[in-house]
Structures are given as structure tokens and as C-alpha cells.
Fold this protein.
Amino acid sequence: MSAVLELQGVHTHIGAYHILHGVDLQVPAGQVTMLLGRNGAGKSTTLRTIMGLWATSSGAVRFRGRQIGGPKLEAGRPAGSAQLATPDIAQLGIAYVPEAMGIFTDLTVQDNMVLAARSARRAAELDSARLEWIFGLFPALKKFWLYPAGKLSGGQKQMLAVARAIVEPRELLLIDEPSKGLAPSIIHNLIDALRQLKAQNTTILLVEQNFQMAKALGDGVAVMDNGRIVHAGAMAQLAEDETLQHRLLGLSLGAHQ
Amino acid sequence: MSTQARRAERRAAPKPAVLSGEASAGRSASELTPSGDRAGYSPTEGLQVPKAEFDFKPLLLLGAVLLAAWPLIGSSSTWLTLSVAGLAMGLIIFVIASGLTLIFGLMDVLNFGHGVFIALGAFVATSVMGGMADWTASESLMSNLAAVFAAMLIAMAAAGALGLAFERVIVRPVYGLHLKQILITMGGMIVGEELIKVIWGPLQIPLPLPAALRGSFVIGDASIEKYRVLAVAIGLVVFALLLFALNRTKVGLLIRAGVQDREMVESLGYRIRRLFVVVFAAGSALAGLGGVMWGLYQQSVTPQIGAQVNVLIFIVIIIGGLGSTFGCFVGALLVGLMANYTGFVAPKVALFSNILLMVVVLLWRPQGVYPVANR
């Protein structure tokens, strides 16, 4: 069981603020790893750092053994930076669904999907079998295919955001709180979709506040607090151990159960 | 309390803008769902989905300006002459400003040096058309047009090449720093203006229209200058090409997406800086083309032409909504028409008609007539 993605002592600064204080994280191949924690613990920052949207100020991010994030090796030697640019990281096979979804609201659903598929120049070049599969997972996208994405409801936008990430096979999905603001029935669809992806050997790193969803999907779990990983282990173990849940995630957890 | 609630409910009721999937699924499934069992399924085929409703209000405003001017001017033939002049001027401004609005929309770069490309285009045209004197003096429309188009192509190439250098040397070091962008691009324009003086001299240079393009068509009592018709035609062709490129090509989609959310475009694996260089060069080339058109419109060129037009194009892209191509089109036409109408009806008002127009439009829509989302 090798780690597809590995973070080693990652520190991230946003302006004057020190957000990540040495994150160590292993994301094993073909599994769903849940990243849990309170608001402001650094979960979203971790995903953005992996994507290169924030620079890693020290430590290292490795994808399939190759360093994609890290500080400059030597001061004054710009070529010595170990930090890849965001587009290069994406091209290695990492798809990212940000918390704000990043939908292009002026463009149609179709155009959003065409942009997400790097190999397609127009809609006719999208892989039709894969598209059918996506429509099966998220029927609303088929119905509103030619609508401007800005007209979709919040849940439908979330569907589109996930669909964009899977329009072509990617090795690793980074998904930031997909269940936020969704109705329980739609969360169910989402869980189903992510399970099917996992069955196709896609590795997923999922930030989540909804413990039910985490329990339903997660193989492994990492819990963050104050910019550090404070617990890492199997999801099943955390799901059974209520004292551990209590200690790591606090009382707010009860509200979800 | 209950009255309040009822009122709130009533207010919330007519809100069809957001499609709630579950609610509309049952209602419209029969009309929307295509027969799923077709072989070689193409998702767009056979779908009877209504497109986005287009916001017609700014176009209505344009029509209202056209109609309101008619009784004020009094004479139909004068109105027609002024309207064509206004549309010609508006379309020339559009050609110049369209690049600027994309440059701002895509990379958040305030390029106050856009005027230098206009000036360069216009001066290159004086040289090219001067060198083709035989062609421009000929009475044949074809050889006249050949000279004009040659001047336009060479001006676009020169302005585009200068744009590449300008982006690399002047703009790239100041990404994300608005104040520095304004200062350094203005500085770049001053340097460019001085270089133009070194090459072409500090004086006004005449740029006469070729023989066959002089004079007017006379329709009834209205006289319509031939060149203005050509300017309208070229402006409309540029507009159509831009719309096609932005809506039907992947590069165009990337530009529109980048205007909305740069970070997401990069997260999808596209190098937005490379895209921006292309847009910057294309925008500069369009400014060069606009410079040729403007110079021919004025029939003379001065080194200060860039600075003169600069204010106008910033007004246009602010009216249009920063980053919006269609808004830039509407804004440019509004500015062109207003300048010509007020110049005739109330010459003193014409001195500040653009500012007045901008104030009125921004009071109505503070983000411009077609606001760009996510900004």
C-alpha cells in the first residue's frame, strides 16, 4: 500500500499568517482519505497548498514520489524552487474541487465540462461513454446541459464541480467539503458517485465536516487542528471510538448524528 | 407579524431565476429529456433546452438614445447623418477598447499604455499609405482598399509585436500591483510617444483618405460619408470575429473562464499566463487597427493621439462593465452616438457628454451595463 500523495512537515504562510505548522499526511493509493477538523484547522489550506495555490514555505509535497511543492532550495536561485506551478500540478493528474466550487457561471454546463476536459476542444470531442456515466450519476447536468451554470441551484453546482473533476480520468481527486449546503438525498447521490470512483481505483482526499458522510466513505482519516495533523488512522476505528471522536472533533459532532 | 410574513412570501414567490432541480424535474421532464436509447448519443442533440435569457435592457438604452435624439435634432436627414457618424466612431472605439477590457478582465491589469498601440498603428499607416501613393491616388476602389487593408495589416503586426515586448518588459513585473501598473504603463506610453516623435517627427501628419473613399453617398437629404460605412463594416466584422472566437473556440472559452476565475482555470491545468500573452498581443494589434481607423477618420495623425483616445476608451470599458466584450460594444456605441448628437444639439454639453453618460450609466448599473460575474 504505497502513498500516492505525501506531505512531509509542510508549513504554509498566507501573507503574514502562519497557517500550516508542519503537516504530515499520507494518502494511500486507491483509497478515500478523509480530512476532518474544526473550522479554521487548516483543511482547505492543506488542499490549496497541495494544488500549489499557496506556496509551501517549508517541508515537501510529493506526488507519486515526485516533489511538487517545497521551498526554494537556495536563496537567490529562482531555478532552484521545488514548487511546481498550479497548472503543472494539475497536469500530473490531480483534480481539485474548491470549497467555493469554482464554477464558471457565465458559461454553460457544457462549456464548463469542455474546459475541464483538457483533451477536448469542443463538446463533440468529450468521451461520450464517460459522459453517459456522469449523467447517470448526476442527471441534472444532462437536463441543464446548455444552461448557463450560474442558473443551477447550489446542489447542482456542486454536482457540476465534481463532474468537472472526473470528466477525464484523474489519479487523485482533492475535494473540499462537497456536502456543504446540500440536502440529505443529494449527499446520498454524491456518496454513491464517490464510491463508484473509488471502485475505479481513483484516490480521493476529501475534506468534510459531515461525519456521517465521512463514516460512509472514508477508508483512512486524518484529523487536523491548529495547522497540524493531530490524529491519523483507519476511519472504522474512529467511527467506533466515541471518546476519541469527542476528544478530536469536539461536541459539535453530536449535531450530525 | 403575519402580514409581514405574507409579504415576504409574496416577494419571494416570483423567483424563477434559479432552477430547482427537483421541482422542475417533474414538470419539464417530458420536454427536456431526449430519447436515451439512441445510438451514438450526443448530449446536445435533440435537447429542447431554452438558452439563457439575454439581458436586452442595455440594447434598449441604445435604441432609446437613437430615438430620443430624433425629435431633438428635428431633421431626419441630419439625424441619419449623425447616427451613422456616431456608429462609425463608436465601432472604431470598440475595436480599440475591446482588447483593453479583456486585458483587464483576464489578468486584472490596468494598462494605461494602451494608447501607444493606437498611435503606433496610425503612424505606421501614414508610412504604408505614403509608400503606396500610386494605389491611394488611383480612382479604382479596389486598389484603394488594397492600400487601406495593407496599412491595417502592417499596423496590426507592428502593434502586436510591440504589445509582446510591452507585456514582457513593462507589465509582467507588476502583476497584481495596481498602482505600479498605472504608473509604469503610463510611463511606457510617454516613452513610446517620444519614440514615435523620433521616428515620424513631432508634428501632425496628414492621413488623407484614398480617392475613391472620399465624399459621401447621398440618400434623400442625408449625406453619409463613404469612409464611415467602411468603418462600420470593419467594426462589425471585428465584433463578429471576436464573438465567434470567444464563444466557439476553446481559447475563447478559456479567456471567458479566466475573466471569471483565474485560479480555477489554472487548477484545471491551463497556463493562464501564456493565454494572457496571446490576449495582450491580440488586444494591442486591435488597438493598432483602431489607430489606423481613427487616423483615417480624423484624416490626420498626431503623436498625442494615444493620450487623447485613452480617456475615451477607459470610459467605454467602465460603462460596458470591466471585462465584458459585449458591454464594451454597447458602451462604445453609446459614447460614439452621444458625442455626435450632443456636438450638434448642444456643443457645450459635448465637452463633457462622455462623463455625463458614464455617471448616468453607473448610477443605473454601478458595475457597468453588463457586469462580469465573480468580480
About this structure: The first helix of chain B runs from residue 2 to 12. The domain at 57-364 of chain B is CATH 1.10.3470 (ABC transporter involved in vitamin B12 uptake, BtuC). The radius of gyration of chain B is 24 Å. DSSP finds 16 helices and four strands in chain B.
